Amino acid sequence: MTMPPPLRNDCFALPPGVDWTPVDEALALLKERLSRRVEAETVPLAHAAGRVLAQSVSAIRAHPPWRNSAVDGYSFAGGLDTTDPRTMPLVSGRAAAGVPFIGNVPEGYAVQILTGAMVPSGVDTVVLQEDVSRGEGEIVVRGPLKRGANTRAAGEDVTEGQKIIEAGTRIGPAQIALLATCGVAAVSVFRPLRAAVLSTGDEVREPGVALETGQIADANRPMLSALLAQWGYSLVDLGIAADTEISVRDALDRAAAEADVVLTSGGASSGDEDHMARALNATGSMALWRVAVKPGRPLALGVWDGCPVFGLPGNPVAAFVCTLIFARPALAQMAGARWTEPLSFLVPAAFAKNKKAGRREYLRARMRHGSAEVFASEGSGRVTSLTWSEGLVELPDHGTQIAPGTPVKFIPYSSFGLGT
Question: pLDDT tens-digit profile of 43-52?
Answer without folding.
Answer: 999 999 999 9
